Amino acid sequence: MADAVAESSHGHDKHVFHHFVDAHQQFDASKMGMWIFLATEILFFGGLFAAYIIFRSWYPQTFVEASDSLNRAIGGINTVVLIISSLTMALAIHYIQRNDKGKTILFLGCTWVLAATFMVIKGFEWSEHFSEGMYAGKAYAYTGVTASHAYIFYSLYYLMTGLHGIHVLVGMGLITWLMIKTKRGQFSSDYFTPVEITGLYWHLVDIIWIFLLPLFYIVA
Amino acid sequence: METAAANRKTVTMKVRRYVMPEHSEKNYINQEKGLKSWLLTRDHKRIGLMYFMTSAVVFFVAGLLALTIRLELWTPAKTIIDAQTYNEIFTLHGTMMIFFFLVPAVPGILGNFLIPLQIGAKDVAFPRLNLLSYYLYLMGVIFTVVTILTHGVDTGWTFYAPYSIKSTAAVIPMTTGIFISGFSSILTGLNFIVTIHKLRAPGLTWGKFPLFVWGIYGTSIIQILATPVLAITLALVVMERVLHVGIFDPALGGDPVLYQHFFWFYSHPAVYIMIVPGFGIIADLIATFSHKRLFGYWFVAISTLAISFLGFLVWGHHMFVAGQSMVASIVFSLITFMIGIPTGIKIFNWLATMYKGSIRLKVPMLYALSFIFLFSIGGFTGVMLGALSVDVQLHATYYVVAHFHYVMFGGMVIALLGGIHFWWPKMFGKMYSETMARVSWFLIFVGFNVTFFPQFILGAKGMPRRYYNYLDQFQSLHQLSTVGSWILALGFFVMLGYLLHSLIKGEKAPANPWDARTLEWMTSAPPPTENFSYTPVVIHGPYEYQRPISEFQLGLINNDHHGGEEHEIEAPSGSPEMANA
Prior knowledge:
The complex is a heterodimer of chains A (220) and B (581).
Chain A: H1 2-9, H2 23-58, H3 60-68, H4 72-97, H5 101-131, H6 150-183, H7 193-216
Chain B: H1 2-8, E1 10-17, H2 35-39, H3 44-72, H4 83-118, H5 127-150, H6 163-166, H7 171-198, H8 211-243, H9 256-290, H10 297-310, H11 326-354, H12 363-386, H13 388-394, H14 398-428, H15 434-460, H16 475-505, E2 554-556, E3 565-570, H17 576-580
Antiparallel strand pairs in B: 1-2, 1-3
């Protein structure tokens, strides 16, 4: 126990804020904070999922027909892209824990590129929809779906994939910041909390997409 | 030895008594100077004071709006303002009071100031995030002020669709303001939960928390789980207005009742965001001023969590007449009744705490007693409104207005005032005039009852809420209520006077003026920036008045120091306590 005391008395290294006893406590606190934040994210999306359930039960035929108008291949490709990006994120954490900064930056970069790929594909997909008149709500002008209230399906589609897209963009920003800080040598196997908790965030973004895919692309 | 200790879940620590000076020359208020040191501070105590100032301004403005409403209702027809202005004023009164005062005030002011002190920490877990929370709140307030100065909103604080979609008023800036301040609420809750879990002093187990910590913990859980739903709901209202997405708009095949479900899924738990920290304050006050251990500690603590949990399952009682299914209404009604159980447990335990206690009727205790009286009225009338058949009669009448003012003002505001009078000496290091504080308490208590009790009668007689005109037969009760609002306002002006006087010329406060036992009283008044000059160690519960004060002032001894005594401290392995040992 005496060792433990000695350790904690000189344990204030430069990454530990003054109000924490040691790096371990700070890491635990940050991780717990991120888990709680993720819980709030689920409730944030939860409202939209609830709305989806209501309108799908009100207008089931509409959802079947409108879902057919989306391009499943594109949805599938994007899913693969995001799942691989989760893998590269996990690898980035793996390598920072082993103090390999080069590989950390490499895999953070891969994650960033995959996220950007996802957004570019999504952008092409949306503009394709717009050119066919598949707008949300009142501006809706698409004639391919015969069942009523199809615009509500597209409203939910744009709202949910849009909100998810915003989260991807935020994630890209965070990953950029992580790459800069890793390059400057601010992370190491002793201190990698931001990498770890950004990873948690990124996996949540991935998981939400895995729910969105069947709800919009594979209804029938 | 360490393994053995971990198995027993206790560790042995060398501690000694530390007595901090009564007054600290260098304290958190004067340690750093200049505006910048305040605006960029990460000190939880300073952030608490910033919340204090801002929410006091909000309360003042929203209070003036309330006085205007009451004045307009002096006569059955137009008195001073036209109908549209009247609609805008009651909307702003409700929105400001609820979203920018009642929700953020107790966690923002007292939570920020006290949680780290009460658990013996140096700060909250994420001080920068805490400052961000404050600025998000401030931004929300600014959006509201801009709305007042430009357009005004006439939807009522509930923003019910479809009117909130069709109204030409400035719904978007207002909801944006609430959306932003919602994130402030979420981040505050997150910060407190992590702080309470991870930054406790050695020995401070969950069974030794002051009840205020339990109150904030329960509140934080509601804040993080309910607020995101409000955020997405208001975002959908904005989308509905801008893009006509058809989610809530019945003209486009949407569902306005869905809006109500979403709104109350947040706004009913929000009632508990407002009142649960108040419960915590009251428990601390009653135990301290009865000088007796809190009766049924675990019942009071766990009932806090029970209320937080049940609060999520009753939102449908706002919608008994909105066309929800009868089965749903019956279930919601039943669960609403059940909330009376944990609330009753609290009230009985507070009363049992006072029984045979040595009660000192200081001003904070007067507020605590008023709380029990007024909140019981608010709670009982709430149970009545939760009964299906009664609610059909009373829905959207002044009875509801009176009920929630008894809960929100008679409960939350009274608890906040009690808390502010209790912790004022610690926050500012100054005492206030006890006599003037009693006068002010009396005026507020009488004024509040004169204002709102007649509204129960008005509602029972059929006076609908939010109406600009009313039948002649209601005039005398309306006038009585208006007179009450003046008494209430006078009470607050007296309070403003003696509190300002206390700041400028008040006597210096001792560190522990109420002979309390919790950690915040063991540091100087006002506390130094780092809160404690030692690492506090807690070996007794928060209300063990029979034990000498010296046993509450223990702290870890540095390794090289000799002497002191050894104590076995309960600590789960891997916890901060272990790290400390």
